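Ticket #4471: structure export looks truncated?
Reporter: QA, pipeline team
Priority: medium

Steps to reproduce: submit the single chain below to the structure queue and open the exported record.
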Amino acid sequence: MNYIKMKKIVIISILAIVFIGTFMFLWGKSQPEVIEYEEVHPSIGSISKSTIVTGKIEPRNEVNVKPQISGIITEILKDPGQKVAKGDVIAKITVIPDMGQLSSAESRVRLAEINLKQVETDFKRDENLYKQQLISANDYEKSSQALKQAREEKSAAEDALQVVKEGFSKSNASASSTLIRSTIAGVILDIPVKVGNSVINSNSFNDGTTIATIANMSDLIFRGNIDETEVGQLVEGMPMKITIGALQDLSFDAVLEYISPKATESNGANQFEIKAAVRVSGENKIRSGYSANAEIVLAQVDNVVVIPESVLEFEGDSTFVLMANSDAKDYQRTSVSTGLSDGVNIEVKSGIDTTAIIRGSQIIKE
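Actual output as written to the record:
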């Protein structure tokens, strides 16, 4: 009997607890929720609007060194990455004679030898006649001059033949065209040939073989493209900040020096090429072709009232903020005039000052 009575009491107690809990839960849900907001205080600061342009770093002047004659590479004396002075020998080549030129040069030598023999014979005759006073001194001098010219022509013909055969002559061996020399001072960026490769000189039919690519790595430019919606805000001479993906701990100053007058289409958008002179100092770690980003400040204002852009409300062409009343218990919609924005903060030209308290984002209670 007592067991049954106790069981009833337990069941009634459980039901009562469930009923009271349900009632309290429903009552709590029916009460209006108190919404709290963050408070924002305007401040004095600076706002700048900038854009990022992607591009790459290049030397301003990049020179391809080509041979003056056709031949075969026999020796390469420099490696990519090495610094060279103007005139340094980069490679040596052995000449492959052009058969037409070779035949013409050999024919010139034979004609020069025939002519020299005839002139020597004439000179000996005139010399004997002059000794016997049978010809004038003037005729003798002409004969002597003809002999000198014939000897000079033979020497020039032999030099020309040697140039065709070997690429140099005895009289100009130091300036041999078989020695490929650097045309500028700089750093060798690439040597695309190997020992044994055939090379040809530049002519009206082809550009010739590139023996080496050389550039002055102290004179660099940034080359990139900017969208047509922003190019109108650029002017030559604007400062830029260059960051290189491979050198994240370094940044470089640059000055905009070129804006293309003509757009090129890229992925359906009009892009304008820009170039900027990169200022490098001290040890230069930059390599040609590095991908880089250039930050350009398009507009900036200083010492202005600044608020987060997220607190603004818009209605038509008007802009508002909710500013706390004097008792700080409610908020009043206040019209403001805004200026430059950087996407996070915005300039307020009129409507509030730094004493205002503005309603910000709702505080979410967990």
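Status: closed, not a bug. The export was complete when the record was re-opened. Leaving a note from the reviewer for reference: Helices lie at 2-30, 99-131, 137-166, 228-231.
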